[in-house]
């Protein structure tokens, strides 16, 4: 009997529903032809449009759906025209991170041979690293609660031992998994600003303590400003990087730029029990409803979801399908014949998703 996994689906705002539909369709097809697992999907209303209609951005019922699910698939959230009374954006994804303690923000950066990229990559080189962004504290700790007066504004950066130790353990475990599967050399880089801030010296101290537990893996440090430089000059030298929330927020967009844009940037926010998988890009309301949106970051996020579920539940079929789905997207991008406008092509959402399905022999 196949094991069934419950997936909470937040289809989001703007282009969110347009990229969610083909992604869920591909997941349904993969599960239908698998002997090892099945998937069921439950819609969970949330987001800026929902807030504009109801006054709630993340209803309690939707949070309950997320809590009881095996994984959460979340599409683009937020609309520039809809904000809270204090002017901040509607961001249920951040609320989920904090409520479910999703401390590890996983941002893969992959550029395969022949893939278009702003960089000039030496022949024979590919880019394949993972940026892990702490997702619940750091400079985002006082989000929406900062102190603002006529003459001053203050936000509080928080780094705790509890979360940092979990984060670093996750980073080294990921580096080991990548090494065992041939995707990396087994190296973790701590990205900080320990030369200026005591908080980051504290961060680095805990990183070093975790590194000492993994003598079979390499560990080093890099200041965040130097890391931004090296991500442009020699990104192929990174394997796993781990950093604070705000630094990770900035560097992950730089990583997306290396791939050609946010349309190829998937992500996951992972805790001890729960995980959210979503594209890094926004809701792009200017092209919503036109069938132009790039679905690939959403599909890649779904691939990450399958791989995570496969590892968590020791389900080889899910792990294999997650890898197949990721490689299918990479093949479509490397081939370069069917690309959406943001990647230099003229394909629409449906055509792009169909190309991935064809690469999987689903259509």
Helix content: 40-55%
Instruction: Give the neighbour order of strands across the main sheet.
Output: 2-1-3-12-11-4-5-10-8-9
Low-confidence stretches: none
At the first level of CATH, what is the class of the domain at 3-100 and 273-359? Answer: Alpha Beta
Strand content: 15-25%
C-alpha geometry:
globular
Number of helices: 11
Q: Let me know the number of strands.
A: 12
The separation of the N and C termini measures: 26 Å
Secondary-structure arrangement, i.e. CATH architecture of the domain at 3-100 and 273-359: 3-Layer(aba) Sandwich
Spatial extent as radius of gyration: 20 Å
CATH topology of the domain at 3-100 and 273-359: Isopropylmalate Dehydrogenase
Provide the CATH superfamily of the domain at 3-100 and 273-359: Isopropylmalate Dehydrogenase
Average per-residue pLDDT, rounded, comes to: 94
User: What string, H for helix and E for strand, traces the elements in order?
Assistant: EHEHHEHEEEEHEHEHEHEEHHH
Please identify the structural class as seen in this structure. Answer: alpha/beta
Main sheet attributes: strand count, strand direction, barrel closure: 10 strands, mixed
Protein described:
With about 375 residues, the protein is an alpha/beta fold. The chain has a domain at about 5-100 and about 275-360: Isopropylmalate Dehydrogenase. It has eleven helices and twelve strands. The chain has helices spanning about 15-30, 50-55, 60-70, 90-100, 160-180, 200-210, 225-235, 245-260, 295-310, 315-335, 350-360; strands at about 5-10, 35-45, 70-75, 105-110, 125-135, 145-150, 155, 185-190, 220-225, 240-245, 265-270, 275-280. The strands form two sheets. The chain has a ten-stranded mixed sheet with strand order 2-1-3-12-11-4-5-10-8-9, sandwiched between helices. Strands 6-7 form a two-stranded antiparallel sheet. Helix 1 links the parallel strand 1 and strand 2. Helix 1 packs across helix 9 (about 295-310), helix 1 packs parallel to helix 11 and helix 5 packs across helix 6 (about 200-210). It is globular, with a radius of gyration of 20 Å. The two termini are about 25 Å apart. The mean pLDDT is about 95.
């Amino acid at each position: 009997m196949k094991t069934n996994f419950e997936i909470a689906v937040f289809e989001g705002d703007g282009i969110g529903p347009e990229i969610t539909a083909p992604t869920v369709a591909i997941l349904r097809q993969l599960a239908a032809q698998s002997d090892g697992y099945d998937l069921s999907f439950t819609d969970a209303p949330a987001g800026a449009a929902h807030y504009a209609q109801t006054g709630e951005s993340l209803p309690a019922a939707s949070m309950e759906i997320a809590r009881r699910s095996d994984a959460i698939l979340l599409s683009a959230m937020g609309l520039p025209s809809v904000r809270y009374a204090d002017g901040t954006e509607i961001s249920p994804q951040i609320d989920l991170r904090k409520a479910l303690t999703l401390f590890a923000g996983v941002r893969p950066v992959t550029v395969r041979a022949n893939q278009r990229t702003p960089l000039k990559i030496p022949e024979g080189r590919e880019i394949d690293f993972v940026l892990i962004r702490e997702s619940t504290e750091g400079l985002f700790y006082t989000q929406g609660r900062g102190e603002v007066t006529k003459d001053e504004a203050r936000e509080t950066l928080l780094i705790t031992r509890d979360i940092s130790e979990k984060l670093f353990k996750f980073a080294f475990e990921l580096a080991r998994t990548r090494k065992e599967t041939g995707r990396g050399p087994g190296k973790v880089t701590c990205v900080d600003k320990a030369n200026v801030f005591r908080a980051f010296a504290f961060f680095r101290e805990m990183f070093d303590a975790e590194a000492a537990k993994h003598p079979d893996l390499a560990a080093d440090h890099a200041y965040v400003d130097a890391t931004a430089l090296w991500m442009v000059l020699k990104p192929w030298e990174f394997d796993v990087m781990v950093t604070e929330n705000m630094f990770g927020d900035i560097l992950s967009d730089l990583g997306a730029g290396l791939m050609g844009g946010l349309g190829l940037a998937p992500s996951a926010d992972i805790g001890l029990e729960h995980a959210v998988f979503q594209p890094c890009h926004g809701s792009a309301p200017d092209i919503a409803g036109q069938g132009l949106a790039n679905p690939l970051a959403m599909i890649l996020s779904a691939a990450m979801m399958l791989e995570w579920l496969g590892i968590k539940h020791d389900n080889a079929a899910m792990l294999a399908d997650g890898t197949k789905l990721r490689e299918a997207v990479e093949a479509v991008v490397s081939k370069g014949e069917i690309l959406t406008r943001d990647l230099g092509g003229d394909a629409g959402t449906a055509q792009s998703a169909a190309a991935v399905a064809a690469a999987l022999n689903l259509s």
